[in-house]
Amino acid sequence: MTKQENYFRATDFGVPEWIPIRVSLMPATWAKYREALEEIVMEFPFIFGEHLPGSIGFDAFDGTYNEGEFTDAWGCVWKNVAPGLDGMVVGHPLPNRRDVRNFEPPTGIVGLPHGFMFMRLYYLRGFEQLMIDFAEEPPELQMLIDKVLEHNLMEVDALVKAKPDMAVFGDDLGNQDFLPIHPQKWRKYLQPCYAQMYAKCHAAGARVYMHSDGHIIEIIDNLIEAGVDILNPQVGANGLDHLARVAKGKVAIDLDLDRQRFPFWSPAHIEAHVREAVEMLYAPEGGLLLYAEMEPDVPLENIRAMCETLMKFKDFDG
Predict the structure, then answer these.
(1) Residue 22 burial by CB count (10 A; 0-12/13-18/19+): exposed, middle or buried?
(2) For residue 230, what are the contacts with CB-CB under 8 A and spacing of at least 6?
(3) What domains can be seen in the chain, in order of their start residue?
(4) What is the pLDDT of residues 22-42, one digit of tens each?
(5) To bridge 106 with a disulfide, which of 37, 69, 73, 176 should be the other Cys (CB 3.0-4.6 Å)?
(6) How far is CA 209 from the centre of its chain?
(7) What gap in Å lies between CA 188 and CA 195, rounded to an integer?
(8) pLDDT tens track for 66-98
(9) Distance separating alpha carbons of residues 287 and 13, to the nearest angstrom
């Protein structure tokens, strides 16, 4: 069985032969550790594939990972002071509600980057202003949502023309331990947006993968209703027990292991964390995938320990 076949057996609850595992290395992590990190990557071809030494440009960063400022196609100004990590939006083109009325989204296809719907709203308005909009519910709130959604639906149409097996989306919906807006307002204003986009994916035969940082427990059922097939939630912001309660068996969980603690744990803590996650969320029919993102503050020994641990537990059978 190929990795792709096993992956979709896991996402489709089709009895995979092993738990799919991934380790992501941020550009800043490569820039910090360089050849030493390359040695670890070559130790674990099952995770990283075959790696050719020297094939990584340690200091080559793209887009919002570059130091400095730039303006995206929506008119949002990004600033990056930590090259190799993602920048943030510091300039919002719609600071006043009246600006929304005359705003036109980009013409043509510019892609669906991370932060394509909810985050795009506060990129455009500014976070505080958007939160006030959700509290007061002026007509401009729905106007802006409709304009962003219309553009996104066009992007999805372009995406599914290629008939992908899976369409990947990323939108951080939660804060560290709560939703920034009330779940009822999320269901009223945002769930219909995701549902329309994801329906187009399903109609084209594509599974829907959605990454979301932050606390999203209260709306996981709604994300499933909207059409999410594979959910990538954070352990630290949601809790294993809560994820088991609301998501296990209902949606495939590509579990974002607790990267906020990787810099501070010992290798033994890392193994205990993965063991707990697998024991709580594993089912023979599938539905569990494991993902670890490594930032530059994670010690090399912990990166190696995570790879070793994932290799150990990928064959877990209960």
Answers:
(1) middle
(2) 11, 166, 207, 208, 209, 210, 251, 252, 253, 254, 289
(3) 3-313 (3.20.20.210)
(4) 999 999 999 999 999 999 999
(5) 73
(6) 9
(7) 12
(8) 999 999 999 999 999 999 999 999 999 999 999
(9) 5
| DSSP character at residue 234 | B
Rg (CA), the chain: 20
Q: Is 98 helix (H, G, I), strand (E, B) or coil?
A: helix
Q: Please state, in angstroms and rounded to a whole number, the distance separating the CA atoms of residues 150 and 223.
A: 20
Phi then psi for residue 115, to 5 deg, are 90, 45
The CA angle 123-118-251, to the nearest 5 degrees, is 145
Where are the strands (E) in 50-113, listed by range? 68-71, 77-80, 88-91
To which residue do tokens 């995206």 refer? 72
Q: Whole-angstrom Cα distance, residue 259 to residue 264?
A: 10
How far is 221 from 208, CA to CA, in rounded Å?
15
- Which of helix, strand or coil describes residue 235? helix
